[in-house]
Structure formats: C-alpha cells, structure tokens
Amino acid sequence: MTVQSIMTSTPAACTLQSNLAEAARIMWERDCGIVPITEGGKVIGVVTDRDICIAASTKNRSPSQIGVGELPRGDAIVCRQDEDVHTALRLMRERHIRRRPVIGPDDQLAGVVSINDLVIAAGEKRDVRPGEVLDALKAICSHPARQAPATKAASA
Description:
By secondary structure, the protein is an alpha+beta fold. Helices cover 35% and strands 18% of the residues.
C-alpha cells in the first residue's frame, strides 16, 4: 500500500511571507496540527501548532506579528506519493515525527500523511498492522533521556 492511498489530499499551505495567525487559522479550519511551507509549490518546511505556541510565548508578540520566515527551519522530511506506508511509518518512528508532507512526481505538495492516517488504516485492517503503528507511536511520543544537571561538590 502506498502513502497516496491513505494521505490527506489537497492540504492547505503557507509561505515564508505568511504570519503565524494565518497558519493557525488553516490548522483550525482544516483540523490539523501542521501546515506545509511552500515556495513555488515545493515544500521547504512545515509549521506546527507547537511552533506557533512557542514562538508567540518566547517572542512576546502576537502570532499575527510573527512571520513564518522567523521560525527556525530544518529540512522538510517529506515522502513521495508512491512510498510504501511501512517505509513512511518507519521514518516517522525513527525521526519522532507525527506528520509528513507528501510530494508528487513533480516534487509539488500533494498531501500530508499523519500517524492518524496510519492508525485509521490499521483499524480498517488494511496493509498496516496495529502493532507496527503502536510501536511507531510509542517511539514518537517517547522523550529523549535527559541528563541530570551537574552539581557542585559541597566544600567541607
């Protein structure tokens, strides 16, 4: 089974010139937690609901005053429409990500695949095993081990 068979098609996107309030509006209207950032139709990043919350609180500005381009951005972890769902799920597990933009043969944004899509596919007894999804979800939700802060030795 390919990603195309379970992905959300025709996702809304924003650009680097959009502001975070616009991205939040898209999330509200589309009931999603991620908005791909595109330039000329190609995915160059994503904005998450968490990004919006953290930016608004740390920059002490309204989301309408913070541009999408102000967010730190790494490489977009995309997948292709014809990618096997097991491959997509494995990468989501390894990279601890819940959602991935999907690109078509022309490298243009074609959809978004989420852990929710994979849960639904597993529940419908499609080509995704529930245990496989559970393992991925456990990995995605796990917190990295944190080191205890260094303490100074008490002087005697």
